[in-house]
């Protein structure tokens, strides 16, 4: 794709990324090619506008949330390492990982995946999904077809169901509990990245 | 009979004994009546032959017959009804004895009863009804398959579609050829007296015995409540292998007449398989769409709505059978296709009717199938050959185990959630054979082989149903296989799963990878944009899935409210104002729900009913075909909410009694008279 030579030597910190994220070298290469494809002006950094080139993302109701999830708060640009780190969340979990207490939770475990999804809801990063944040998500997903009243009642019911400590917001634990019947590993993995 | 009486010395054994005795008496009556009727018919012929002679001589006036006996007139429906009644009484009897029904699966008991009945019939000297293949394939099998297909859990099915297809197609092919080939080898052994069974017959036999049977699997797996993944794997396999079985069976049947096989024939076989399976699905899908389209216009004739569902599905099955396509796959495709649109269109009552009729028919069918299997075993001519039968049973087991292990090894490379050894064991152990194998064997024409094959098939069926069926439950518990979790619909789960779907689709876009989320998203969009407009009536066509789900939950709760008359179990009724006053719950989260006394409950129910009736339309003159308009039918959101608010207001008004003490952990405007209080603990 283009005149860029696709060899591991061109990728900055390739070895470190392999270690950190668990992707194989082939995958890192593939992702690097994709990164270069998105990076139209060849700066080595991605900006939110670059993601706009992906057509279907515009049709996605939470497309803008996903894009902003790649960028750390306050940052305007995204380098390859951060790109890969975010995508590492969607790698299928390693079944033979040894439970080492000292090691930090890997990004692609169930916890890591759930944390990532939680952050997409919780835009202000206060550790809870407030009613307003939930309403925003519902509005984005349901669009123009529902009345405000319906949205309110759905949000109401959702919070009632999940909220155990009665603080009118959904914390991460409550979020996790409401999804306990869903196989997160299966639901939030992309086979392509395995 | 004595066997059933012995175990528990409780009154239920007496009831069962009574039921069994009465059933047997009924049965004996009909048998005697049948033989009497035959005698009558014979005498009747003699009478008529005498008449011309005596006509001229005596005009004796016979007294007017007050009571006469004419059994022939109603014979066929009478016997059919009696059989079904007998089957259902047996089923009733089993569930009254608690100990037996927990150890032995129902299918075993029914076969046993069939054996008994068959024995009795044979002892009397009558001819026993055999499980006729036409009866089985046209009348007994479709309800079971439709029931399974209509209520198929789509999400689990499509997620595991690849695995299921591999097991169904490759697994069944492996089974058929392995068993067929090895049996040929066995037949070549001298001293087994089986030298005249040639290779093609063996392969034909292999193809009949190789398929896992949906009826048997359903009957056994229903009772052990295994987790959804395993259930859908085994069950999906049993449904989809029908295409393979149909093709192989017809293929080998044709070849065994012709005698030789060429490469062209093999290629044609593969093409035939594709045609049979895809054609079946296509036929089913067409009928499903027709059914969905029809249901769009049924808002004025609600009474006949369920019939459309049943008839279109049955037509799909029959149409597929006309062309020798896979009827089972056609039926499944029809049910799956029809369901989302039909459910959006039909009334709540019709939905309940469909559900209950399907369950009822499939239950009756299943019972009859197993009983007839028992009866046919006793009745049919048998050709027992130790070598053949024993090696069949052993080979079935071996090939199943090898097949599952081998295929899982390959499949696990492509699966995200791998299948563990326990899963593999259950899948292998759950490969039960049933009545389909028997009926296919029955359709064979060559009488000598037929008896030999039928005996072996019946033995394998008995072995799998009795031995495997009975031991699977303790094994499941022993291996601590994950059981099915009770699934209470949760709006949170629905919201979050949809959110995750969108998220994954977005990530796939970013990666530039067209994974299955991408295609699912495209399908949903297509569905929303084009298909729903055509197939769903009125404004529901634009309703997003989340809203339908939410409405369903609300409706379920509202129904519960009306039926139980108790305010205590419904959290959403609490208005947002009182939410702020909620005191923290106790440590163990046990809520004491004051339960209303019977008379008070009745009073409340009466009040509610009267109030709800006021919202109905003014009744037209009575007509048998009119259904009372449900207050919950076809209401737009606003009206529904208003009604609910009204109900809530009235409930709290009528239930509030000025009482001196009021102690509820949750603040609700509900107080009860002290002397009527009965607390129940709700462990929700």
TrEMBL record, chain A:
Q: Which domain of life is it from?
A: Eukaryota
This one is known as Uncharacterized protein
UniProtKB/TrEMBL annotation, chain B:
User: What is the official name of this protein in its record?
Assistant: Uncharacterized protein
